[in-house]
Amino acid sequence: MRLAAITLTFAACACTAATPAITDPEAFVRGVYRQIAAHTSDYAPPADIYTPHLAALFAADRKQHGDEVGCIDFDFWTNSQDDPHIRDIRVGSLPQRDPALKTVVATFTIERPMEIHFEFRRGDGRSLLDDASSVKGEHWTLSKLLRCK
Predict the structure, then answer these.
(1) Is 113 helix (H, G, I), strand (E, B) or coil?
(2) Which helix (H) or strand (E) holds 25?
(3) N or C: which end of the chain has fewer CB within 10 A?
(4) Count of the separate structural domains present in the chain
(5) Which residues, in sequence order, are bridge partners of residue 93?
(6) How many Å apart are CA 76 and CA 81, to the nearest integer?
């Protein structure tokens, strides 16, 4: 199952199909978790949801590691390697002073409570995922992990 989670993470970055613009990051994240809860092994978020900064980090990781496991060996949406039995999902937003930024918080349980913050940046009429971090349980920041840090 570890390989399935890795495949999901990289499949999310490798496809090129256009996604409708993310106008409401909270609704988007809620939809991602709805899909994950419905059938995690079949779902990978679209590739074009990342800011150029985060997309470049994913591309550099793929280039450096090729077909091998890269810097991330788990699904960052669920903070897990196996097909998670996710439950108690809650999605909300933190107050922001800058209208170009939005932090969406997902809390859920997979064996233990988890909390992941998704940082979205708005530009050109749409929001893109700029970073993610786990703040409960294992602590990590996606952009740092993609640099193998």
Answers:
(1) strand
(2) helix 25-39
(3) C
(4) 1
(5) 104
(6) 9
User: Three-state SS string across 39-91, please?
Assistant: HHHHCCCCHHHECHHHHHHHHHHHHHHCCCCCCCCCECCCCECCCCCCEEEEE
Reading the block at residue 130, the tokens are 């700029």
pTM of the model: 0.82
Sheet with 112-123: list strands edge to edge: 87-93, 101-110, 112-123, 126-136, 140-141
Mean of pLDDT values over 105-120? 95
Q: Which amino acid is at 32?
A: V
Q: Output the CA torsion 100→9→88→23 (10° steps).
A: 30
d(CA 122, CA 145) in angstroms, rounded, equals 23
CB within 8 Å of 62: residues ≥ 6 apart:
10, 13, 14, 70
Domain range for residue 49?
A: 2-145
CATH code where residue 101 lies: 3.10.450.50
